[in-house]
Design a protein that fits this description.
Number of domains: 2
CATH architecture of the largest domain: 3-Layer(aba) Sandwich
Shape: globular
Structural class: alpha/beta
Number of strands: 8
Helix content: 40-55%
Number of helices: 13
Order of helices and strands: HEEEHHEHEHEHHHHHEHEHH
Distance between the termini: 105 Å
CATH class of the largest domain: Alpha Beta
Length: about 325
């Protein structure tokens, strides 16, 4: 009996030892994969940093340099400024089709905010007002004169509204594409943002790319330059800062801009219906109350990225506003 008990104890001890050994080697393997992934990500980021030379200009606005891409001549029409949403890898690719078409009729400018595309990173808080000030400085340093017709997608709608309020003498009109709203639900957790950034830094983003599961809008996953900038910048400090302040300080800056309204400034709002957010259309309709010269169009057969899914509607809306400037 005693021998049997000792044998059972021996087997249990052996099982525990094997379990501890397995967990130890599992931990070592995971740590090794993290080190390998981190090293590979850092090497690839540096090796491919200059793979795609800038299209357009790199303009020094003081503490950092921003990328600007301009096409066309303004003539008697306002210059169109295109502002991308949060997390969009490349403004150049984001607006490529629309910028090309509009440039037949006027001057059109897209640019990368700090921490995106070909632009350098900034050390300041990336609030809507800071971004609007950056854009104003960029246009001034580049010698791009107004008036400007601002086109803002998503979070770009926040920055465009702040710009239109702060520099109203330079603004001829606003086109907001499924713009963020100060009363929208949700927000971004700083912890979650840094967790995602950490996963990207250890190479998880590249693995997702290999299996066609990148967390960006599908058309960007098929574009080599957009994928490149995703791996270079996605969830960097500047983009996390934009997310952190979006529904706090930035939203308050937009509220302040909206408080006095936009008078009779031309304002066109394009939006889509979101099944998981039925109140979205009414929030978008509220934005039109900011101007006595406004319109709201609910676009069918499109996602949040209306300018990519239905570019002809966006071009038509912008052209209508441009033509109205000549009447």
């Amino acid at each position: 009996m005693e021998k049997q008990i000792n044998a059972n104890i021996g087997r249990k001890t052996s099982i525990i030892q094997r379990g501890v050994s397995f967990l130890k080697w599992l931990g070592i393997s995971i740590a090794a994969l993290i080190v390998i992934g981190f090293t590979y990500q850092q090497i690839q980021t540096k090796v491919t940093a200059d793979k795609y030379p800038p299209v357009g200009e790199i303009i020094d606005i003081g503490d950092y340099k921003l990328h600007l891409y301009a096409l066309g001549k303004s003539g008697k029409r306002p210059t169109v400024i295109l502002e991308s949403g949060l997390g969009t890898p490349s403004s150049y690719k984001d607006w490529e089709q629309i910028q090309s078409e509009l440039s037949k009729y006027t001057r059109v400018i897209s640019y990368d905010r700090a921490g995106y595309g070909w632009s350098e990173s900034a050390s300041n808080d990336r609030t809507a007002e800071q971004i609007a000030d950056d854009l104003h400085a960029l246009l001034k340093e580049a010698g791009e004169e107004g008036p400007y017709l601002l086109v803002g997608h998503s979070f770009g709608g926040f920055t465009s509204q702040v710009f239109a309020h702060k520099y109203k003498e330079d603004v001829a009109g606003l086109v907001l594409i499924d713009s963020s709203h100060v009363d929208q639900e949700g927000g971004f957790s700083k912890v979650e943002s840094y967790l995602i950034r950490g996963l990207k830094e250890i190479g998880v983003g590249r693995v997702l790319g290999w299996i066609n599961m990148l967390p960006i809008y599908e058309p960007f996953t098929k574009d080599e330059l957009s994928v490149h900038f995703f791996h270079q910048h996605f969830y960097n400090a500047n983009q996390i800062s934009e997310m952190e302040y979006m529904m706090t300080e930035s939203a308050e800056q937009v509220r302040a801009a909206q408080a006095s309204g936009f008078g009779d400034m031309p304002l066109s709002v394009l939006s889509v219906e979101h099944e998981d957010y039925p109140e979205w259309s009414s929030l978008q309709q509220q934005i039109t109350s900011l101007s006595s010269n406004s319109q709201h169009t609910v676009v069918k057969d499109a996602s949040h990225y209306i300018h990519l899914d239905q570019p002809e509607i966006v071009v038509e809306t912008i052209m209508e506003m441009l033509e109205s400037q000549n009447e």
